[in-house]
Amino acid sequence: MIELANAAYSYGGGDILTELNLRLAPGSFHFLTGPSGSGKTTLLRLCYMQLLPSAGNVRIFDTDVRAMSRDQVATTRRRIGIVHQDCQFLDHLSVAENIALPLNVSDRDANAEIDNMNELLSWVGLSGQANSLPPHLSGGERQRAALARAVIMSPDVIIADEPTGNVDWEMALRLLKLLVELNKMGKTILIATHDLNLIRNAKSQISARVLRIHNRRLQLAGADL
Amino acid sequence: MLRLLLAGDQNADRVVPPSGYTARLTTFTAGAMAFLAVFALALSLATGRLADRWSAELARTATVRISAPDGQMAAQSAAVLRVLETTPGITSARVLSDEEQRKLLEPWFGPDLPVETLPIPRLIEVIEDASGPDIDGLRLRLSAEAPGAVFDDHTRWRRPLVDAATRLRLLAGFSIALIAVSTGAMITLAANAALSANATVISVLRLVGARDTYIARAFVRRFTLRAFAGAAVGTLAALLGVALLPSAADEGAFLTGLGFRGWHWVLPLLIPPLAGIVAFWSTRMAAFRTLRGLT
User: Fold this and answer.
1) Do A74 and B210 touch (CB under 8 A)?
2) How many cross-chain Cβ pairs, A to B, lie less than 8 Å apart?
3) ipTM of the complex in this document
């Protein structure tokens, strides 16, 4: 689904990431760890085409990202659900409208999918907040809304960047449970996190690979996790 | 495209938050520019009419002025008329009456000027045909038959007047073009401000899979309709102003002739759609330029 072959990313003349080799198989669950500033977010951005590799290849759904037109990038992103640590909502739209945004931009009628929307809101526990504005949500509610927005198009891959960074442990476990459920439905999951407890908890539930960025390179994490 | 623009996309329109000053700036700019454009158009059309009229009225007329002692005036007038009647290229010639000469002098000397007692030159109005006379030959014959006669074909003062009117018309046309370009520039600035203010919105839309055309459409439609509405108000206000100008006097004085005649009243109605088109392309180019800078 997503494949990096000897990919590298440089900025301002210096290598940020180098010799990246990664293959996200369908239905796999990957964690990405590493200290702050190690390049986790950069790697994720390479995976959803917000950055282009300065060397090597990144292939997404069997297409080289450099060969994609801007429209292709847009349509490919509809197959990738993205959850950011800061969620990035449109504050003037309600929670339901924000969640339905991917449907609207792909010219699908959100009203025709109202049942799916209600089911999704219920799944993430936000049925009561559908008409609220994002600034009125708590940190955990925002993350769940962001997850709902990421999955509303039923994407093949879900990429989450520190999804539990701003929530307490109880909420982190709740979010993890949702992501595990999605993985059990066949979705490919890639989560960047520095929370090792979260990774240990996940590994007790599912088979997950843990990758670590060390010295600008991607490694398989050791058994200490 | 026009159907999409008019019908709109409620969802696409909603994703961009209602903006404050850029909306008002666009509407006001379009209104003010349309107001100015209507007056520039009126000026252009009025000077065009003036140039045409002066050209038409003066092109085929000439005057013979006879300055002679009282005893010779009648004889020289008759001699001039004879010469003119036998000159090819001249349709008719007649001596202006005292009353007509009094009217010509009235703007300078007032009414009741006793022209018959004053040593005023006698004027003969000459109407030429399309080919016109041989001016040099005619002048030679006149000087031989009537030494006090001077032939004036009006070219000396007609040409600068027509040239001035034509240049004024060009200036008015240039002003309209300048107004259109300025409108485009100001709407581009306003669109860029709106795009910058909504950088987060655009970034989110790209991340959830929006195509550039979808994002641009939300901004383009908004700016196009604002420019159209502003220009419509500006045009109507200016048309009202033009309609309230004093009507043209019989003498056709230039300032009182500023306005629209007949089907020319339709031309200002093209300004709002043109402002919309300018806004459409300005915003579209600004939006795509901004979007190309984003991944």
Assistant:
1) yes
2) 64
3) 0.86
